[in-house]
Amino acid sequence: MRTSVSTLKIKRVIKGSIVWLKRECGKAGCHCIQGEKHESMYISRSVQGKTTMTYIPHRYEGEVSAAVAEYKRVLQQLEALSAQTMKGIKKGRRK
Ligand SMILES: [Zn+2]
């Protein structure tokens, strides 16, 4: 199917990369003190030229992964759309 702006159907997007960081929670007697650290999802993104890390609570992990994937999908489609547009312009151009 030919891509067009109207077929993009953009869902929620996040421009950033997923980073998993291990940490200790600090609770006495927790298994993380023995080296079995907690893995937490963070989103690394650039905000006004600075890299910012945002902690993602466990219940949002699925949603955030989907939004990051959606951003990439839309970006790929936009690039394809740009190429298509250029192709059309080249075809229509008179020599
Ligand atoms: Zn812990």
Task: Provide tags for this entry.
alpha+beta; elongated; 34% helix; 3-stranded antiparallel β-sheet; binds zinc ion; 95 residues; 1 helix
Please describe what this structure looks like.
It is a single chain. With 95 residues, the chain is α+β, with helices and mostly antiparallel strands. The chain has one domain. The chain is 34% helix and 25% strand. The chain contains one helix and three strands; from the N terminus they run βββα.
Point out poorly predicted stretches.
none
DSSP summary: helix tally? 1
What is the residue-averaged pLDDT?
90
SSE string: EEEH
Q: Determine Rg (CA atoms, Å).
A: 21 Å
Alpha-beta classification:
alpha+beta
Task: Quickly count the domains.
Answer: 1
In total, the number of strands is: 3
Strand content: 25-35%
Largest beta-sheet characterization = 3 strands, antiparallel
Widest sheet: strand order?
1-2-3
Instruction: State the separation between the terminal residues, measured CA to CA.
Output: 30 Å
Bound molecules: zinc ion
Shape descriptor reads elongated
What helical percentage do the residues reach?
25-40%
